[in-house]
Design a protein that fits this description.
Structural class: alpha/beta
Strand content: 5-15%
Largest sheet: 8 strands, parallel, barrel
Distance between the termini: 66 Å
Strand order of the largest sheet: 1-2-3-4-5-6-7-8
Bound molecules: 5,10-methenyl-6,7,8-trihydrofolic acid, 3-methyl-2-oxobutanoic acid, magnesium ion
Radius of gyration: 20 Å
Length: about 280
C-alpha cells in the first residue's frame, strides 16, 4: 500500500509510527494490507498504560483477565462491569495514541444484542473505551452485528475462550483435527458480522495461518503461532511480574517480580536499620 499520510511518509509504520496521532481500526486493516505485524498488550492501570502508549504499542486491551491479574479471582468468570469500569477509565485517561479495547465480562452480553449494547455503551460512555471485545464465534453474530450497527467497533475472540472454560473442559487447545473447520467457520462468521479484528487463543499454528490468510481483518494471536497479523500477551506475563508457572505461549521479557521484590526488600532493610529516610528526604524547620 502506498497511502500518503499527513507528514508525507509513504509507508507509515503503525508501531511507533510518527504519522498516526490516534490508532484507529482503519489503521489496523491497512497494516494488514502492508503485511505489517503489530503488538497488543493488556493494561489495567495508569502507569502501565502510559508506558505502553509512549513506546508505541498500538492497541491496549483492558482484559477481563483483570479478574486474575488485578482482583485475584481464580477465573475470569468472576469479574463484573462495575469492577472493569474503573480500570477502563484509568487506561483511557493515561493514553493518547493507543486504541483502547475493553473486554465485555462474562454475563454482560450473552443474553442478546440488547444486553451487549447496554454493556458496551457503559464501557464506551463511562469508561472511554474505543472498542469492545467479546468471546464467541458463530453464536455471537447477532451481538456483533448490533454493536457494529450502533457504531461500536468489535474485536471478536475465538478458539480457547476462557469465559467458556467449563463448557470447553478446561484450558485446552481448540481447533485441532476435525474441529479446524468449525474454527474457520467461527472466524468467517465474526468477520462477516462486522468484527474489525479477531483474537485466536490457543489454536494450532497451521489453523491460525489459514484463518489469517483467508480473512481481510487482522488476527491477533495468543498461543496461535507466528503467522497471525498481531500478537497479544497479558502484560504481567510478558514482563515477568506474575509469579509461578506461565502458559506455554508466554515469553517473559523481564523479571519484574524479582526487581520489585528486591526494591521492597531494600526499602524494608533501610527502614529497619534507620538508613531511610536520610537528610535529603527530611524537611528542616
Ligand atoms: N495472567 C494471565 N495470562 C493469560 O494469558 C490469561 C489470564 N491471565 N487470564 C485469562 C486467560 C486465561 N488464559 C490461560 C490460562 C492458563 C492457560 C494454561 O494453563 N495453559 C497451559 C495448558 C495448555 C494445555 O493443557 O493444552 C499451557 O501450558 O499453555 C492458558 C490460558 C489466558 N488468559
Ligand atoms: C488474553 C486476552 C486476549 C484477553 O482476553 C484478556 O486478557 O482478558
Ligand atoms: Mg479476556
Amino acid at each position: 500500500m502506498s497511502d500518503k499520510y499527513a507528514d508525507g511518509t509513504a509507508e507509515a509504520s503503525l508501531y511507533g509510527g510518527p504519522s498516526i496521532k490516534r490508532v484507529r481500526i482503519a489503521h489496523l486493516r491497512e497494516a494488514k494490507e502492508r503485511g505489517e505485524r503489530w503488538p497488543m498488550l493488556t493494561s489495567y492501570d495508569q502507569y502501565s498504560a502510559a508506558v505502553f502508549d509512549e513506546i508505541g504499542i498500538p492497541v491496549l486491551l483492558v482484559g477481563d483477565s483483570a479478574a486474575n491479574n488485578v482482583y485475584g479471582y481464580d477465573t475470569t468468570l468472576r469479574v463484573d462491569l462495575d469492577e472493569m469500569l474503573p480500570l477502563v477509565k484509568a487506561v483511557t485517561r493515561a493514553t493518547s495514541r493507543a486504541l483502547v479495547v475493553a473486554d465485555l465480562p462474562f454475563g454482560t452480553y450473552e443474553a442478546g444484542p440488547a444486553q451487549a449494547l447496554e454493556s458496551s455503551v457503559r464501557l464506551m460512555k463511562e469508561g472511554g473505551a474505543q472498542a469492545v471485545k467479546l468471546e464467541g464465534g458463530q453464536r455471537m453474530r447477532p451481538q456483533i452485528e448490533a454493536l457494529t450497527h450502533a457504531g461500536i467497533p468489535v474485536m471478536a475472540h475465538i478458539g480457547f475462550t476462557p469465559q467458556s472454560e467449563h463448557m470447553l473442559g478446561g484450558y485446552r487447545v481448540q481447533g485441532r483435527g476435525e474441529a479446524a473447520d468449525s474454527l474457520v467457520a467461527d472466524a468467517r462468521a465474526v468477520c462477516e458480522a462486522g468484527a474489525f479484528a479477531v483474537v485466536l487463543e490457543m489454536v494450532p499454528g497451521q489453523v491460525a495461518k489459514r484463518i489469517t490468510h483467508e480473512l481481510a481483518i487482522p488476527t491477533v494471536g495468543i498461543g496461535a503461532g507466528p503467522d497471525c497479523d498481531a500478537q497479544v500477551l497479558v502484560w504481567q506475563d510478558m514482563a515477568g511480574l506474575r509469579p509461578g508457572r506461565t502458559p506455554r505461549f508466554v515469553k517473559r521479557y523481564a523479571d519484574l517480580n524479582t526487581v520489585l521484590g528486591k526494591a521492597a526488600r531494600a526499602f524494608a532493610d533501610e527502614v529497619t536499620s534507620g538508613a531511610f529516610p536520610a537528610a535529603e528526604h527530611t524537611f528542616q524547620q
